[in-house]
Write a structure and sequence with these properties.
Layout (H helix, E strand, L loop, with lengths): L5 E7 L32 E6 L13 E3 L19 E6 L2 E5 L5 E5 L5 E5 L30 E8 L5 E4 L6 H8 L17 E8 L2 E7 L14 H5 L7 E7 L7 H15 L1 H4 L3 E6 L9 H12 L5 E3 L8 H15 L1
Parallel strand pairs: 1-3, 2-4, 9-11, 9-12, 12-13, 13-14
Antiparallel strand pairs: 1-8, 2-7, 5-6, 5-8, 10-11
């Protein structure tokens, strides 16, 4: 299934039912008086988060959502039925914007969290409501309020504790497969992930964290090149960034690769660029054992890197356990 992280839909609430103009008609009761009931309220439209969903793809096919109208009032003081509310399910982590005003209406970060996006029209009043001591036969009613319509932009930002950064083929998907049950595609030929993957890394009972793998970035990503830019926003919710680097890329230089990613982060968001970021030097298995430490140290020294550095081989699992324990300690210390 293709990942979709943004959709535009239109929602229309239910119209309120009109009040009824009616008089009691019974044999031997010539002046029965008014008995027109009120109309029913129109149905509201809610957007509600659902942990079972992970994509907005369904909204590519269904874009218009209408709640039911309230029924009109009836005679014998019968009130019209209220229009049932309409609930639109979206993944947890969805931001809801009004397209016309660009106002953020809500941020659905918990499963089952409802957000009212279109209020149903209020019911009209029947003529029984206007009976007074001086007006025994009122012919006055009120109409129900009209529907509320608005266009919404749904924007999904995945919820994760840790986000993975890196160029295509840096080994991010292999790493998330190594430390969690997530199964993104990996292969021995160059390609990039096409959709974000979430993996739950369980350290021990009741101690786990969520890690997000986004499509690899390329130079110019912040300006719209490639797939990575449209998913960079998913990293805005993470508390820690892991910058995975191929220590022995087939083309290019690992130091320049690191600088490219840092530049794209700064162009996209200064706040994101300043978030804590750990350097993870991957694919050590491609180097002779006696050259691994010196090669990694040369990269760190050339960058004058001040943050934490980890040396791993995602495909063999070397160093991955130590990295995961360090992440768990970091996240726990922040709480």
């Amino acid at each position: 299934m293709r990942f979709a992280d943004e959709a535009i839909i239109e929602v229309v609430s239910g119209r309120g039912g009109d009040g009824c103009l009616s008089f009691k008609r019974e044999k031997y009761i010539p002046f029965g008086g008014p008995n027109g009931g009120d109309g029913g309220d129109g149905g509201n439209v809610y957007v509600v988060s659902d942990a079972a969903l992970n994509t907005l793809i369904d909204f590519r096919f269904t874009r218009l959502f209408r709640a039911k109208h309230g029924e009109n009032g009836k005679g014998s003081e019968c009130t019209g039925r209220k229009g049932p509310d309409l609930f639109i399910k979206v993944p947890v982590g969805t931001l809801v914007y009004d397209v016309d005003t660009d106002e953020c209406l809500g941020d659905l970060v918990e499963s089952g969290q409802p957000l009212l996006v279109a209020k149903g029209g209020a019911h009209g009043l029947g003529n029984i409501r206007f009976k007074t001591s001086t007006n025994r036969a009122p012919r006055r009613i009120t109409r129900g309020d009209p529907s509320d319509a608005r266009r919404l932009r749904l924007e999904l930002q995945v919820l994760a504790d840790v986000g993975l950064l890196g160029l295509p083929n840096a080994g991010k998907s292999t790493f998330i497969r190594s430390v969690s049950a997530a199964r993104p595609k990996v292969a021995d030929y160059p390609f990039t992930t096409l959709k974000p993957h979430l993996g739950v890394v369980s350290i021990e009972v009741d101690r786990s964290f969520v890690i997000a793998d986004i499509p690899g970035l390329i130079e110019g990503a912040a300006d719209g090149a490639g797939l990575g830019a449209q998913f960079l926003k998913h990293l805005s919710r993470t508390r820690l960034l892991l910058h995975l680097v191929d220590t022995l890329p087939p083309v290019g230089d690992p130091i320049q690769d690191i600088l490219k990613i840092r530049q794209e982060l700064e162009k996209y968001s200064v706040e994101l660029a300043e978030r804590e970021r750990w350097l993870v030097l991957n694919k050590l298995d491609l180097l002779p054992l006696d050259e691994q430490s010196s090669h990694c140290r040369a990269i760190v020294d050339a960058l004058d890197w001040k943050g934490r550095v980890f040396e791993i081989s995602a495909i063999s699992g070397k160093g991955c356990q130590e990295l995961c324990y360090a992440i768990m300690e970091h996240i726990t210390a922040e709480v």
